[in-house]
Every structure is written in C-alpha cells, then in structure tokens.
Amino acid sequence: MNTDMRDYMIELTNQNSVESLWAMHCARMKDYGFDRLIYGFTRFLTATSFGDPNDFVVLTNHTPAYRKGFVEDGLYRNAPMVRWALENEGHCSWRALAEQINKGTLDEKAQKVVAFNLTHKVHAGYTISFKSVSSRTKGAISLTTRADMNQDQADEVWADHGQDIILLNNLVHLKILTLPLPLPNQNLTPRQREALEWVGDGKTMQDIAQIMGLTQATIEKHLRLARETLNVETTAQAVAKAAFHNQMYIIEA
C-alpha cells in the first residue's frame, strides 16, 4: 500500500460526520472517473419490503432531479442493479445490465428505470453490494462514470483499480455505520435524546425526572415527542431506532 493511500485512509476513518466523510469519498471516486454516487442502507429490510423510506440512509451527489425521480418517486424499487444488490454481495459491472437489455429480459418497470437513467446520462458504472451480517440490513453503492465515459472504459478502470475502489467503499460503508445518521425530520432534540439515553440505561421515570431536574410529566412529554419524531409506537422502539442511527450517546463535535 502506498503512502498516499495509507494517509488518505487514516484521514477518511478519522472523519466525525457523515457529511465530511461523504464529501471526501465523492472527491476520491471522481479521481477514478466515477463522478456520481448513490449510497443506500436500511436496517428494516423484510422479504417483501425495504422498510419505511423515511428510515433509509441515502447519500448522493446526483442532481436533485435525479434524486427525486430515482429515490423520492420510488424508481429504485424496480432498478435492475438494485435488484442485483438485494440478491448478491460483491461488485457488478453494469455490462450485466446491457446484456439483459440486449436479450430483452427486462420487464416494463425495469425498462422505465433504464430510460430514466439514460435521460440523466447514467449509462455506465459499477454497483457494490456490501456484506450483510443481518437479514434485516442491506447496504449498497452505485458508482456512475462521467457522462463522456462508456462501460468499456469503466471496465478498464476497474481492471486497474477495482480492488482499491472496493476497499475504499467498504471502509466508507463501515464508517457510516458508526456516525450519527442524518434522517429527514427525525432528529432528536437534546432533551429527547437525554431522556431516551436514561431509558436505555434502565432508569425509571422517577429516576429520570430526578436526574434531569424535571417533572415526570415533562419526561413523559419528551419521550412522547421522541416517539413521534422517530415514527414509532413505543419507547422501547424509540431507544432501538435511535441506537441504530447513532443518535444516542453521541459526542458533540
């Protein structure tokens, strides 16, 4: 391993926010010719569902228009490479997609996704599906080449640098899982977080009220608002979800 790569990896793993980590990673992948990335992760996967879209972690430097169509409007559900990522682990050249197109094996919904991608010049790249340690989790990243590159050129880059690219993406994925994750409209206030932390420590309502110097009614209000913020029904679920997304016991920067 050369000095530049080692120094970069040390700096990467020392990042203390998802935002700074993602900015570093996008810049590095651009050096390899992959200038548009989209990362997705869920802890709530089932046999029939990705879970609540509000619980997804999605990071991307694609245009807002692409994100709206692919993520917010739900095209990802029928994207051929997303399907591949759900069923496999490792990496896959988008040449596999081209082969499906040539064979005419894509269904109508998948063809719609391909057409949408082409309008945004998303036509060449690689997908990495990360190894899962739970049947409820799945993470993957899509690396799209510059608009002026084709799949042959992407494959040439991969032949020369593929192992380094896989290593860096695996590192970023693992690092993301250690950081507080930004979720739309699901950020806890300091009081809500503290109350959940004490619940997680096994304290009673009476204990928490005394520790925080508040009434039990106020503690119950903070916990109710935390449940509403996290879109769960019980306080136990709120503690679990906040822990999953590293929103508890965090060290403020």
What is the count of β-strands?
5
For the sheet with most strands, the description reads: 5 strands, antiparallel
| Order of strands in the sheet with most strands | 2-1-5-4-3
Number of helices: 11
Cα(first) to Cα(last) distance is 31 Å
| Share of residues in strands | 5-15%
Determine the mean pLDDT: 91
> What's the gyration radius in Å?
21 Å
Please sum up the structure shown.
This protein is α+β, with helices and mostly antiparallel strands. The chain is built from eleven helices and five strands. Strands 2-1-5-4-3 form a five-stranded antiparallel β-sheet, sandwiched between helices.
Question: Can you characterise this structure?
Answer:
Helices cover 53% and strands 12% of the residues. It has helices at residues 3-13, 18-31, 64-72, 80-87, 95-103, 108-119, 151-176, 190-200, 205-212, 216-230, 235-244, and strands at 34-42, 57-60, 90-93, 125-129, 138-145. Strands 2-1-5-4-3 form a 5-stranded antiparallel β-sheet, sandwiched between helices. It is globular. The model has no long low-confidence stretch (mean pLDDT 91).
